[in-house]
Design brief:
With about 140 residues, the chain is α+β, with helices and mostly antiparallel strands. Helices cover about 20% and strands about 45% of the residues. The protein contains 3 helices and 7 strands. Strands 4-3-2-1-7-6-5 form a 7-stranded antiparallel beta sheet. The longest helix is centred in the C-terminal third of the chain and has 14 residues. The radius of gyration is 16 Å and the shape is globular.
Length: about 140
């Protein structure tokens, strides 16, 4: 049986030093894909973009800078104040930076850890099924 954790978090799309636009990020996690997090970015109830990246990247990015290449995550904020996590997404054409309340992201990540504890992802990964799908051309 596949267990899931889903939550829509209010994020801020950073346009400049003092300019932001609210955007919803629907974070999804599945026990049959234990390394992966999917984030669907929503506008007016429609998905405008979907990104996949490692759950470990979000976990590490809550404490310090994490990631190379297309996705980077880092914490911001003053101790004792409102802490946020920044997520930078890059393509060949552009870079977009978003932020989310660290407490909300942490709460969702705790839900994923209750499903698959960090460091135990291999125990939940069915390699035979994934290989069969790959060899059958169904990935």
């Amino acid at each position: 049986m596949v267990s899931t954790a889903k939550r829509t978090l209010e994020m801020q799309f950073l346009l400049g030093p003092d300019e932001t636009v609210p955007v919803a990020g629907r974070f999804s996690y599945r026990s049959d894909r234990p390394y992966e997090v999917e984030v669907a970015f929503l506008s007016r109830g429609r998905t405008i973009a979907t990104w996949l990246f490692a759950r470990d990247l979000l976990l590490a990015g809550l404490c310090g800078e994490a990631g190379e290449g297309d996705v980077r995550v880092w914490p911001s904020g003053e101790p004792g104040g409102r802490r946020r996590a920044h997520i930078e997404l890059s393509t060949d054409d552009s870079v977009c930076e978003l932020s989310v309340r660290a407490t909300e992201l942490t709460a969702w990540l705790e839900q994923t850890a209750a499903i698959v504890p960090p460091g135990h992802e291999d125990d939940y990964l069915d390699m035979d099924t994934h290989l069969a799908r790959l060899l059958a051309g169904k990935c």
